[in-house]
Amino acid sequence: MAANLLDYDLEGLAVLCERLGEKRFRATQLFRWIHQQGAAQFDDMTNLAKSLREKLKTDFEVQAPKVLKQQISKDGTIKWLFDVGNGDAIETVFIPEEDRGTLCVSSQAGCIVGCRFCSTGHQGFSRNLAVSEIVGQLWFAEHFLRKHLNTTERVVSNVVMMGMGEPLLNYEPVLNSLRVMLDDHGYGLSRRRVTVSTSGLVPMMDQLGRDCPVALAVSLHAPNDTLRDDLVPLNRKYPISELFAACKRYLAAAPRDFVTLEYCMLQGVNDLPEHALELVKQVCGEDGNNAWCKLNLIPFNPFPASGLTRSPRERVMAFAKILTEAGIVTTVRKTRGDDIDAACGQLAGDVKDITNVQKRITRRRTIMLKPVVPSGPVFHQDVRHA
Ligand code: SF4
């Protein structure tokens, strides 16, 4: 079987070239053809010696995962379903905005973490993705969009690893993929424009800080350990105090001076004023430092199996107001692509679950989160889910 050159970072290609009896600089030429020009045919790589092209044709290929389906939202968001073999399919989303184009990339086929509000989490886990499958999503999207838009300019300006999977549970392939994305001979993205989102794998956050500190987002979703244990089960291993300490350590190397805390607003579960006040306390800690993070409030995108509902807009804004008044920089995320199930937490692909995630989630639902009766007159008309 031909080896896929999308699996190699520049250093890996240099070693490969040496093994083929070529000079190391050939690797740079090859890398640029693949990632900057989007070339998949070795005959198109005209500044490579014919003898090298022939060698490459024998044993190598440039192959992104195949597109099974493409959907375009009315807001311009594009979602692709990619075949990654053996019945597994992953999803990737491109979100165009005036000043940027963001690609949301998957790192695993499914996910073992099993967050309650996440469609991927409900599907279970099949396997980790290879570098060629992670970078392949970017390679395909960038060059497809350039052709589609008839431009030679870069289209994908930002990458967020917020698609299917927990990136830090697939560490080495994710790390090598980041290196390809950041390489000036590859996509040349700045560390500020590449974000890894984690559910809070503390030791690997430290490792990422040492190896390749890109922007960091953390899925928080709860103001206390009891609730987070249920929403993000990884919390039982790495509770909020350890998670926040790891975030602060990460900042020493990070390209931004804050970590983004993602908070999915679930009606009657984590969206009440008392939750916001508790969150303020958690973030500020004993030293009152509220500058180390930004809160990103995300409207929940309901899916039937979750048993959860979206917080009303007024409640989200009231929650944001409490945080903002406490001096915490807070944004409310715009929902994009929800008509094609491409919004946050909606990516599901199609995976063969080799774990018992689905069973565990169903069991957890039966001992589920008790909706909280809100206090204060502002919210008395809201209906909580059963
Ligand atoms: S939110 Fe992330 S970590 Fe949690 S189940 Fe979904 S993909 Fe996995």
Overview in brief:
By secondary structure, the protein is an alpha/beta fold. 34% of the residues lie in helices and 18% in strands.
Give an overview in words:
The protein is α/β, with parallel strands linked by helices. It has twelve helices and 14 strands. Helix content is 34%, strand content 18%. A ten-stranded mixed beta sheet has the order 3-4-5-6-9-10-11-12-13-14, with helices on one face. The radius of gyration is 22 Å and the shape is globular. The termini are far apart. The protein binds iron/sulfur cluster. Iron/sulfur cluster (SF4) binds next to helix 4.
Give the helices and strands, then pairings.
Elements: E1 3-4, H1 10-19, H2 25-36, H3 50-59, E2 60-61, E3 66-72, E4 78-83, E5 89-97, E6 100-104, E7 108-110, H4 119-123, E8 125-128, H5 131-149, E9 158-161, H6 171-182, E10 194-198, H7 202-211, E11 215-219, H8 225-231, H9 240-250, E12 259-265, H10 273-284, E13 293-299, H11 313-325, E14 330-332, H12 357-366
Helix pairs in contact: 1-2, 5-6, 7-9, 10-11
The site of iron/sulfur cluster (SF4) has 12 residues, from helix 4.
Number of helical runs?
12
Bound molecules: iron/sulfur cluster
Regions with little confidence, pLDDT below 50 for 5+ residues: 366-386
The major pleated sheet works out as:
10 strands, mixed
In the CATH scheme, the class of the largest domain would be Alpha Beta
Structural descriptors:
386 residues; alpha/beta; DNA polymerase, domain 1; TIM Barrel; 2 domains; 10-stranded mixed sheet; two-stranded parallel sheet; 14 strands; 18% strand; globular; disordered C terminus; binds iron/sulfur cluster
